[in-house]
Every structure is written in C-alpha cells, then in structure tokens.
Specification:
Layout (H helix, E strand, L loop, with lengths): L1 E6 L19 H8 L5 E7 L35 E5 L18 H7 L4 E7 L1 H14 L3 E10 L7 H12 L2 E3 L1 H9 L5
Parallel strand pairs: 1-2, 1-4, 2-3, 4-5, 5-6
Helix pairs in contact: 3-4
Length: 189
C-alpha cells in the first residue's frame, strides 16, 4: 500500500508567516490534487513549545496552539487521516516526521501495510530531507514529489543539494503529473 505524507504545510512556513519558505504556498494546490490518489494521507506539524532550543537557530515559529502552527487554510484537511506532531520538546528540533511524539510513524505505517511513502511539503532542505532520509532508513520505498516541495535555501542551492542527497540515499524523485498519470492507467486483469 502507498501513503502520502504532507510535511509541515503550516501558516508560519508560507508567505506572511514567521519563517516563510519562498513560494511555500505553491505546494498547496499540487498536494490537494494528489490526495485522492492515495488510500492513506498523513500530515506532520511543527508543534513547538514557546521556549525551545530550536529557536536559537530559527525565529520562533509554529508555536503550539497558535494560528502560525495551523495548516495553510487552503490545504484540504478533510482527506488527512492522522496528524503527526513533532518538535514538541524544548530540547530538540524535531525536523523529521518520524520524530513525532503523538504516534510512532514507522510503526503506524507498518501496521497499515504501507510499503511506499510519497513525501510532499516544506521545507525541502530541512524537514522534507530529514523525513525522507528517516523513511529510507526505516526501509520504506520513498518518493519525493519534486513539484510539491519548496526549499528555504539559506545558502543558494540548498534545496537542489538536498534533493540530490535524498536521491543518492535511494529516494525516487517524481512529479505530481507522473503520479496522477499512473493513477489513471487501467488495471491489468
């Protein structure tokens, strides 16, 4: 079985947010189109306490219970089966969705027979990268949907370098068009 994982498509990572990813909101319509092609859709949220070591590296963002921590208002949340909360401790960063504290993502995926994980969201060079590398370490066939991710690019080219690192680690880089086209193919008898 395959699952779609939406990483951190939250207000604070979109234009106007506390830590905006350039064109972060551009992933929303792509992800919305993909949701119907997957029997299982999961989404992670940065869910930081007000005081965390994470804010020594980054401006405060996605603070628990704030509007900035909510999903982008145009993201179709009706199709999301489970929300994974990460970065909930004052002592860690919580970049990977596999670090969620309210559910063990790896165990959940295995219990539901998931073997293929398609990753979308923000940001390519941080949370998407960490989640993808953890998915590979956990043994899942892992795809990164390249038109459904965006990078922070603290240094120019960070996003592209992250994509190449994920590919070298074993992830398959794929586009939403490829996924939607394969969903339309007739099933062989």
């Amino acid at each position: 079985m395959k699952a779609l994982l939406i990483v951190d498509v939250q207000n604070d990572f979109c234009p106007g947010g506390a830590l905006p990813v350039p064109e972060g909101d551009a992933v929303v319509p792509v992800i919305n189109r993909l949701m119907d092609s997957f029997p299982l859709v999961l989404a992670s949220k940065d869910w930081h306490p007000r005081s965390t070591v994470h804010f020594q590296k980054w401006p405060p963002h996605c603070i628990q219970g704030t509007q900035g921590a909510e999903f982008h208002p145009q993201l179709r949340t009706d199709k999301i089966h489970h929300v994974l909360l990460k970065g909930t401790s004052d002592r860690d960063d919580g970049y990977s969705a596999f670090e969620a504290t309210n559910i063990s993502l790896a165990d959940f995926l295995r219990e539901h027979g998931v073997t293929e994980l398609y990753i979308t969201g923000l940001a390519t060079d941080y949370c998407v990268r960490a989640t993808t590398l953890d998915a590979l370490r956990e043994g899942f066939r892992t795809y990164v949907v390249t038109d459904a991710v965006r990078a922070v690019n603290v240094q120019p080219g960070d996003g592209e370098r992250a994509l190449q690192e994920m590919k070298q680690a074993g992830a398959v880089l794929i586009t939403s068009a490829d996924i939607l086209a394969s969903a339309q193919e007739p099933v062989s008898p």
